Amino acid sequence: MKFKNRYRISSARAPWWDYGNTAPYFITICTKNREYYFGDIRNGVMHLSPTGAIADVLWYQIPHHFPDWELGRFVVMPNHIHGILIKKPAIIEMARAVETRHAVETRHALSLPQQPLPSTPGQRRFRNPGKNTLSTVVGSYKSSVTRHVRRLGFEFAWQSRFHDNIIRDASAYDRITNYIDKNVAKWSEDRFYS
Q1: Its pTM surpasses 0.85
Q2: What are the pLDDT digits (tens) for 78-112?
Q3: What is the per-residue pLDDT across 18-66, written as a single tens digit (0 to 9) for each?
Q4: Strand order, beta sheet including 163-166
Q5: Which residue intervals of 66-158 are DSSP H helices?
Q6: Long-range contact set of residues 118-127: C-beta below 8 Å, sequence gap at least 24
Q7: What stretch of H or E contains 52?
Q8: Among 27, 40, 105, 121, which has the minimal tally of Cβ within 10 Å of its Cβ?
Q9: What is the DSSP letter of 158?
């Protein structure tokens, strides 16, 4: 597909799903070219490099910046991370929504011609990704890791996208948690091992 005469990579996100919805998500983020930036595994133990330590520490900071999100299992591997991010039900504070200028802006907005809203969550996401979506959280995490690693003078880059899986039931959640827990021990069988 072309946009402004350039090829556009289609989204890896499910077009039928709103990634701001309450749900647990299993994500995998790889380093660029699957370089071993995060350390190595010796005798079944992950030994973090300084870059890996930063990726590890900053993961646990996510709920401080995004209070509507909780963390499930997480592991740093030599060239990728696996983690479960859980979107909690949103708590809306009415005090934030009500402002004096809000009424004035609404009156003017009602007099403007209205554009039809996109019909699918994927179309709406392209228009406005929102401030509390999975992509926003992951993008913020990736950018934070990159900034801190480069500030210390280390070479580092992420793969441009990330993989996600919407976890739909307790059985899938348990299976994915088990996979994350055993990932280091089964490194030689991992598809990212090379």
Answers
A1: no
A2: 999 999 999 987 554 333 343 434 443 433 434 44
A3: 545 577 899 999 999 999 999 999 999 999 999 999 999 999 999 999 9
A4: 69-76, 80-87, 23-30, 163-166
A5: 94-97, 100-111, 121-127, 134-151
A6: 120/15, 120/16, 121/15, 121/16, 121/17, 121/18, 121/19, 122/11, 122/13, 122/14, 122/15, 122/16, 122/17, 123/15, 124/18, 125/11, 125/13, 125/18, 125/19, 126/11
A7: helix 50-59
A8: 105
A9: B
CA atoms within 13 A on the CB side of 129: 11
- Beta-sheet pairing, 69-76 with 80-87: antiparallel
* Cβ contact 63:70 at 8 Å: yes
Residues 148 and 13: beta-carbon distance below 8 Å: no
C-alpha distance across the termini of the chain, in Å: 32
38 neighbors 143 (Cβ within 8 angstroms): no
**36 dihedral zone (left: phi>0; alpha: psi -120 to 50; beta):** beta
Local confidence band at 165 (pLDDT 50, 70, 90 cut-offs): confident
